[in-house]
Design goal:
The protein has 297 residues and is an all-alpha fold. It folds into 2 domains: 52 residues, no CATH class; 225 residues, MetI-like fold (Orthogonal Bundle). Helices cover 78% and strands 1% of the residues. It contains 13 helices and 2 strands; from the N terminus they run ααββααααααααααα. A two-stranded antiparallel ribbon has the order 1-2. A hairpin with a 6-residue loop joins strand 1 and strand 2. Helix 4 runs parallel beside helix 8, helix 4 crosses helix 10 and helix 6 packs across helix 8.
C-alpha cells in the first residue's frame, strides 16, 4: 500500500511539474472540455441545421424525405416574401441596437465616471434587476403599456398623441427595453477601463466634452460598443415571441421559422429560413473582426 501510494504521488508530481513548465499544454487541457462541448452542441447543431435544409417534405404525407436538394435555400433566397421579411427583421434589429446604444451610453458613463461608489453599486443592481424577471412577464407588461387603454395612451392623449399600439414600433420599444441591460453592462465595463487621467488631460488641454468623447473615449469604447451591439442585434434577429405579443400582424424571420415548424410542419423550410440570421451574424462578426475591434474585447 505504501509503495503504491508513493508511486501515485510521484506520478502526480511529475505530471504537475510537466504542466507547470508547459503553460500552453495546461491551457489546452483546461479548455478541452468546454471546447468539446461547444463543438458537439453548437457546431454539430449548425451542421444538422444545414443538412436538414437540404431535405424535402412529401406533399401528400407530410413526411420528411432525405433527398438532397437546394430548392429550399433557393426558394428562401429568391422569394419576395422572405426578402421582405429579412429586410424588416434586419431593420428592426438595427433600430433596436441604435436605440439601446443611445440610451445606454449616458447611463453607463454616469455609472462609470460620475456616480459615487454607493450610487454605482445601486445602479448596477438596478440594471440587473430586470434580468431577474421572466421574459414573458416583461413582454406582456409592454403589451399592457402599448394597448389603447394602457398607461402610455393615458399619458399621450392630453398632448394630442396616441400609443403606437401593437406594431413594429411597439416591437422596437419592447425589445429595446428587454435587451437594454445587455448593452449597458458591456459599455459600463468598457468605460471603467478608460483612465480618468486621460479625461483630465483632455480637459486641461482645452478640449470640450464632445471633443473629448469623440477623440479619447469613443476609440477606447469601440470594442464595448461592438459587444453590446452584438447582443442586441443578434437577440432581436432571432426573436419571435415579442413579435407575436406586441407586433400585431407583423412578421419577422423567427415567426416564419416558428410557423414552418409548428403549423406547416415543414422542418426543412424552417431550417433554410433559420440559416438567414446565422449568415447575417457571421457576416457582421467577420466585418467587425476585420476592423480589429474584437482583439481588444
Amino acid at each position: 500500500m505504501t509503495g503504491g501510494a508513493s508511486a501515485r504521488t510521484s506520478f502526480a508530481r511529475r505530471v504537475s511539474t510537466m504542466l507547470y513548465s508547459r503553460p500552453r499544454t495546461r491551457l489546452g487541457l483546461l479548455l478541452s472540455a468546454p471546447l468539446a462541448w461547444l463543438v458537439l452542441i453548437y457546431v454539430a447543431s449548425l451542421a444538422a441545421l444545414l443538412v436538414t435544409a437540404l431535405w424535402t417534405v412529401d406533399d401528400y404525407t407530410g413526411a420528411i424525405k432525405m433527398e438532397w436538394t437546394f430548392d429550399n435555400i433557393v426558394h428562401v433566397v429568391t422569394g419576395s416574401l422572405y426578402q421582405t421579411v429579412t429586410l424588416r427583421t434586419v431593420g428592426v434589429a438595427l433600430l433596436v441596437t441604435v436605440v439601446d446604444l443611445i440610451i445606454a451610453l449616458p447611463i453607463a458613463f454616469f455609472m462609470a465616471k460620475v456616480a459615487s461608489s454607493r450610487i454605482q453599486r445601486l445602479m448596477v443592481i438596478a440594471v440587473l434587476m430586470p434580468l431577474w424577471a421572466s421574459y414573458l412577464v416583461k413582454a406582456y407588461a409592454w403589451r399592457s403599456v402599448l394597448s389603447h387603454d394602457g398607461i402610455l395612451a393615458w399619458l399621450l392623449r392630453p398632448l394630442g398623441l396616441d400609443t403606437p399600439g401593437y406594431s413594429l414600433t411597439g416591437v422596437v420599444l419592447t425589445m429595446g427595453y428587454i435587451w437594454l441591460p445587455y448593452v449597458i453592462l458591456p459599455l459600463y465595463a468598457g468605460l471603467e477601463r478608460v483612465p480618468n487621467s486621460l479625461l483630465e488631460a483632455a480637459s486641461d488641454l482645452g478640449a470640450k466634452s464632445f471633443t473629448t468623447f469623440r477623440t479619447v473615449v469613443l476609440p477606447m469604447l469601440t470594442p464595448a460598443i461592438i459587444a453590446g451591439s452584438i447582443f442586441s442585434f443578434s437577440l432581436t434577429l432571432g426573436d419571435y415571441i415579442t413579435v407575436n405579443i406586441v407586433g400585431g400582424a407583423s412578421q419577422m424571420l423567427g415567426n416564419l421559422v416558428y410557423t414552418n415548424v409548428g403549423t406547416a410542419n415543414n422542418l426543412p423550410m424552417a431550417a433554410a429560413i433559420a440559416l438567414i440570421p446565422i449568415v447575417i451574424m457571421f457576416g457582421y462578426i467577420a466585418a467587425v473582426r476585420k476592423t480589429g475591434a474584437l482583439e481588444n474585447l
